Amino acid sequence: MNKKYIDISYYQKTSALNFEKLKDDGIEGVIIRAGYGRFGYQKDKCFESHYAAIKKAGLPVGCYHYTYMKDKKTAKEEAATLLEWIYDKEFELPVYCDIEDKTLETLGKEKNTNNVITFCETLENAGYFAGVYANSNWFRNFLERERLKRFTQWEANYSKEPKSGADIWQYTDKARFDGFSGNLDANICYRDDFTEIIKRLGLNGFDKTSEQNDNDLPGDVNGDGIINAADARMILRASAGLLELTDAEFKRADINGDGEITAAEARAVLRLAAELDTQSNPKKTQ
């Protein structure tokens, strides 16, 4: 089911936002700017107050960092600064690298992509669910998008819905909602599993919520501790009547818990496998 998010920064003061009213008007999550650059003083002046107010309202929250990184060294420095700002917080939504600054356009696709990968891998190594934000022009002309497919993508396009497979579409900067008197950035999120994955795997500041061992993971149909294409193949064969699953295998295959095994579960497993491969597969984090 699609979800509606807003994203905000210092330019939308905390005192002017009523997150309870925003929630009542259909907002289901908020992505806040943590800051920009690589120095501590560049933390967004409303980051702390935004975070506290959103948590108080009970809305899922993620964050983004506006980057000026020119090379791998500054990419690591910026990521390290971001980690200092967020280390004591819990984010139900991903942590994004926001790359769109005009000064970076001359670096070229390959270097920009290398820098984004370095930034996001630094976040991943620290236990965060990392993503990339850019507008369609940037994804097309200044990044090697295929190399970034391993990260969740958030794409801005105010003229038409992207067909790129991005998980979040920022569709306007002129949305109006109860709870704020001015315009807001509005987004449609096509996924509803960010929070479940993040909490289950103990990412983004959360402790691992599941006391299961790896053999009990939903999607790990064969119980080998790794969610991959082999599990998806088992689901497809079972849905076609070519394989009879044990009770335990059926439970792990029934991703959505509706008591049926279909090709939809296979697709969900493949998507989850791609996430876990880069977002701390439990087998790899032990």
Oligomer: single chain
Sheet with the most strands: spatial strand order: 1-2-3-4-5-6-7-8
Structural class comes to: alpha/beta
Strand residue percentage: 15-25%
Low-confidence stretches: 210-214, 280-286
Q: Approximately how much helix is present in the residues?
A: 25-40%
Tally of DSSP helical segments? 10
N-to-C terminal Cα separation, in Å?
Answer: 33 Å
- SS elements, strand count: 8
Report the C-alpha radius of gyration, rounded: 20 Å
The largest sheet, given as strand count, sense and whether it forms a barrel, is: 8 strands, mixed, barrel
Please tell me what the overall shape is: globular
- H/E order of the elements? EHEHEHEHEHEEEHHHHH
Kindly report the average pLDDT value: 90
Structure in words:
This protein has 286 residues and is α/β, with parallel strands linked by helices. 35% of the residues lie in helices and 17% in strands. The protein contains ten helices and eight strands. An eight-stranded mixed beta barrel has the order 1-2-3-4-5-6-7-8. Strand 2, helix 2 and strand 3 form a beta-alpha-beta unit. Helix 3 packs parallel to helix 4 and helix 7 packs antiparallel against helix 9. The longest helix is centred in the middle third of the chain and has 17 residues. The C terminus is likely disordered.
How would you summarize this macromolecular structure in one to three sentences?
The protein is of the alpha/beta class.
Write the layout of secondary structure elements.
Layout: E1 3-8, H1 19-24, E2 29-36, H2 47-57, E3 61-66, H3 72-86, E4 95-98, H4 109-125, E5 130-135, H5 136-141, E6 152-156, E7 168-175, E8 184-189, H6 194-201, H7 229-239, H8 247-253, H9 263-278, H10 282-285
Parallel strand pairs: 1-2, 2-3, 3-4, 4-5, 5-6, 6-7
Antiparallel strand pairs: 1-8, 7-8
Helix pairs in contact: 3-4, 7-9
